[in-house]
Structure formats: C-alpha cells, structure tokens
Amino acid sequence: MPVYVGLDSSTQGLSAIAISVAGARREVVWQHRLDFDADLPHYGTRHGVLPNDDPLVARSSPLLWAEALDRMMALVPKDVGAIAGSAQQHGSVYLAATAAATLAALDSRRPLVEQIGGMFVRRESPTWMDASTRAECDAITAALGGDDAAARLTGSRVFPRFTGPQIRKFAQAEPAGYARTDRIHLVSSYLASLLAGAQAPIDYGDGSGMNLMDLRARAWARAALEATAPGLAAKLPPLAPAWTVVGTLAPYWTRRYGLPAARVIAFSGDNPCSLIGTGLVGAGRIAISLGTSDTLFGPLAESGYDPAGYAHVFGAPTGRYMGLVCCRNGSLARERVRDQYGLDWEGFGRALRATPPGNGGAMMLPWFEPEATPEVAVMGARRFGLDADDGPANVRAVVEAQMLALAIHSRWMGVAVAAIHATGGAAANRDILQVMADVHDAAVYQLPVGNSACLGAALRAYHADERAAGRDVPWEEIVAGFAEPLAATCVRPVPAHVAVYREMAQKYEAFEREQIAHP
Ligand code: ADP
Ligand code: XUL
Hints:
By secondary structure, the chain is an alpha/beta fold. The chain folds into 2 domains: 3-272, Nucleotidyltransferase, domain 5 (2-Layer Sandwich); 279-446 and 486-519, ATPase, nucleotide binding domain (Nucleotidyltransferase, domain 5, 2-Layer Sandwich). It is built from 20 helices and 23 strands. Strands 1, 2, 3, 5, 13, 14 and 15 form a 7-stranded mixed sheet that branches. It has a 6-stranded mixed sheet with strand order 18-19-17-16-22-23, sandwiched between helices. A two-stranded antiparallel sheet has the order 4-7. A hairpin with a 3-residue loop joins β16 and β17 (294-300). α5 (134-144) crosses α11 (222-228). The longest helix has 23 residues, at 495-517. It is globular and about 65 Å long. The protein binds adenosine-5'-diphosphate and D-xylulose. Residues 10-12, 291-292, 331, 334-335, 345, 424-426, 428-429 line the site of adenosine-5'-diphosphate (ADP).
C-alpha cells in the first residue's frame, strides 16, 4: 500500500508528512522540515521574508520555494501514491510565456533552480505579510461598489495582502512587466505546477483569498478582474475543486529521485488544508492555529461574510465553506515579548502562571507589525495601564490580547463553540492554551499531529486519490485516526476566569476602536 504525502510551504519553511492508511494502521510514517533562513541562507531571508526598506513590503523568492521543494523531494518516501500540498495564502508568482515550455522540459540531471530562473517576470513574490497596497484596495473597493459589495462577491473585503490588490500594484508600477506576464500563480498552484511539469489550476479554497473569485459561483468574477488590472482573465489559471488531479510527478522528479509517477493533486492554501488537518469536517467546533500568524477558523454550511469586515469566507476542501480570522501579530509578537524580557518558552509559561487573568486591568494591542485584524498600518505595540518594564505583565498582555482579538472578530461566524482544536507551533504551550480556554469559554484540545496544514494536505492526497479511483470516501473516514483531538490533553475553562474575560472583552474592544480611530 503506497503512502500519501503532504507538503506545506509556509512563511518560514517547507514541511512534509507521509501517512500510511493501510488497514488499521493509520499513522504518520515520515516527516521532515526545512527552515528557509537556516537551511537556505543564500537567499538572505529573515523569518522567510527578504529585507526591504519599506516596512510595509514583505516579499520572498519563488526560487527559494522551488529549491526547498527540490531538496524535500529528494527525501520523500519512494512509495508515494499521491502528493498534495498546502502553501501560505495570497502570495503570488509571475511567469512569462516561456514557462510552459520550461516546465515541460526539465532536465533531471541539473538542479531545478538552474533551469527555471528565466521563467519569472518578477524575481521577488509578494507574500501574505505584504501590507503595502492600501491605495490599490481603495480603488478596487470603489470600483466594486464599496466594502460590503466586495465582501459579498468575493467573501472578503479588499485586503492589502490579498492577491488582487498586489496584482494591481504591479500592473500600475511596472506595466511592461505586467504585459510580459503570461500566468499569475498563487504559491500553491506554482508549486503544483513544478511537480506536475505543467501549469496547474488554482483550487477554490486558495482562489477565494484573492479578491478575484465569485465565492458562490466559484468562477473568476469579471467585475473584480476588471477592477484590478487590464487583461487579467487571460493571465489567471483555471479554477478547480481541491481534489482535482493536476497530473503525475514530472519525469524530472521520477528520474532524479527514483519516485513513481504518483498523482499530483491540486495544492490549496494553508488555512483550507488546516481545516482538514484539524479534523473540522463537521459543524460545532473551531480550530485556532498559533503559527507565524494566529488564525481562527471553522466550517460554515453556507457562504456569507463578516459584516464588520475583518474576517474571510473561503471555499473549503470539502466543497463547502469556511470562516477565517487572521491576526498577523502571532508567534513573532510572542517571541518579541519573550526576547525583550530575556525569557525562554518555559519562562514565558511561568510568567503566565504568575500573573492574574485580566492582568489587573492592564492591556496591550500587540501590533508590532502592521495588523490585518483589525487593519492597522501604523506599527508599534500600544499599552494601556501596562508598565513596559514589567515582564510578566507584558507576557500576559500579549497573549490575552491575541486571544481576545480572535474571539471578538469571530463572533459573526455564529458558532456556539463547544471545543477548540489547537494547532501551530505555540499550541505546544499549555499555559497559552489556558488563556485560550478561558477567553473562549471552551475546552481546548491538542492534536496528535502538530503541523495541521501539512497533515491536511496529506489527507487531501488520500481523499483525491480514492476519488480518482472511483471511491468517494466520506471526510469523517478520511480524517479518522489522524486529526481527532486527544482527550487527555483537554484544557478546561475556569469559570471565574471566563467571567473576567467577558468583562475585559468590552474594554479591549473599546481600546481597539479608539486606537483604530487615532492610530
Ligand atoms: P508557521 O506558520 O511558519 O508554520 P509554526 O506553526 O511552525 O509556524 O509555528 C512556529 C512558531 O511556534 C515559532 O515561531 C515559535 O514562536 C512558536 N513556538 C514553538 N514552540 C513554542 C512554545 N513552546 N511556546 C510558544 N510558542 C512556541
Ligand atoms: C490568511 C493568511 C495567513 C497565511 C499564512 O488569510 O494570510 O494565515 O495563509 O501562511
């Protein structure tokens, strides 16, 4: 029985997981991670992003993503049956007309990056952390008839990191480069194209992170394309369901690494993949991922939108929908506070245990970097009644702020949250999870596999491979044994703390509103 492989190209690294589903033995049989800064230092990234004088600009290198893929594929188990992937959402890759021929003729005797350099129109790709397109967002929003109209059509208001405004900025700043662009990929569809040796489609899940897709019709929205850049329809890949078989591993991979011609399944965004990897295939539960970004997400039966405008509705890999709140100041903000007070994660947890829930009324808005939820471009943490020299109080303040922001800005989803599945690097920290449980008044569980986006991709490979063989295996069956929360890890809310946070949420909201009005 072959194994199924999932890849996850995130902000800071590339991970891979192989799962076995043979009989009763359903387990992760292999995993590996490459860190962009440490393992591919010649690109000069910091936390996966290239240096730039403008703090609002955040780009990375499409060649770096390709080289990481090449290194990873050398290590992938040789009995891979199908491979799918996950990638940071919104980031985009701009290819010239020569790309199709380049992809089709990759020579297995030479490294990938030596052969593909000529196919990029832009050597730097905007990432999801890029916040430099406010003017473009305003222009697109106006052309679509306002915030609500844009959100109703595409599932989200127009956001700086979304692909549409990034494309508009490029088309206006570099019209010749834009004219030379034959195909604009997301990071997900770009990586799938490299594996298949042919241009891959964009799946509905990642496609809904572009402000270019009609969420309900699951088709490119002509009005949005016209509001973004001229001639855009001809430059976009087709849209497709997440279970689409894009092709098989190109001869480059089979010859170079002795891999079989395994099916390549459409890649998707990391959040849609995490929905599967956290086992959220039915209603009533949500997941919170504490990674580079902090995200809260859960399945939605119907498409819809957040009337307050901060959150997103995406297509889900199940064919239905998902709601998502994304706060940009996640792990890096926690690390910043940790380092500022000379702590390690153990010390960070001790500081949480040593301080009272509610922090004696002290609060922080942890907007060290430009924030997306709520949208704030003027960076810098704001403190309210909080002594900047008090390490433990600042540790508590950053975590409380992050949990309150996720809770407040996800109310529109209308989910009566009974349980939260926690994932991402910081979900290992049970002191952070206690704050999560108390703020959300819900039991929090850790999951058996930490990298939910990567696991979700592997599970999607399994699902799509079965489907391609004519078997439509129910999602509950796909995730069983892999993404079920571990009962023994349950962190329960403490009623007295819940009461503190119910009151604090109102004060936090007022503090947030005031700082948005007067940044
Ligand atoms: P990505 O979004 O890049 O996939 P991950 O989900 O792998 O990120 O999370 C990585 C982050 O997890 C690190 O940047 C680090 O801040 C955080 N992390 C790791 N261990 C702990 C811990 N014990 N407590 C809190 N945060 C942690
Ligand atoms: C979601 C978002 C982030 C990235 C992180 O809208 O921007 O969660 O997908 O990789």
